[in-house]
Amino acid sequence: MTSSSPRVARDHKRIAVDLDVIVNGVLNHVDGRITDLSEGGARIDGASLPARSRCEIHYGGQTIYAVVMWSEFDRMGVRFPYELSHGPLHAALEYARGAVPTAPAQIFRAMRPVGFGRRGLS
To answer: Fewer C-beta within 10 Å: the chain N or C terminus?
Structure first.
């Protein structure tokens, strides 16, 4: 019988982005694309390094250190030992947060006439 630990809620909300990056491992560097980003980590498509390895992510002249948490054939998830708080990658995250669609506004609900249909027929 196996037991699995309960999942812990993430500290930061993940935001969908589309950012081209270069990932430096110990022996090589590969091009990748960040598709999911938060202050604490990222999902990188097109690049794959072994789990628990360390790497550098280069974006916009900035170098971000990361640890690979999981890895598949063509993508991986990384955790940043130091949370993003400044620099081009953080700016891209903040820009993407501002571009996230929100729920439709409900300002016209109070202005609707009471009745049947759009014209308020009774």
So the answer is: N
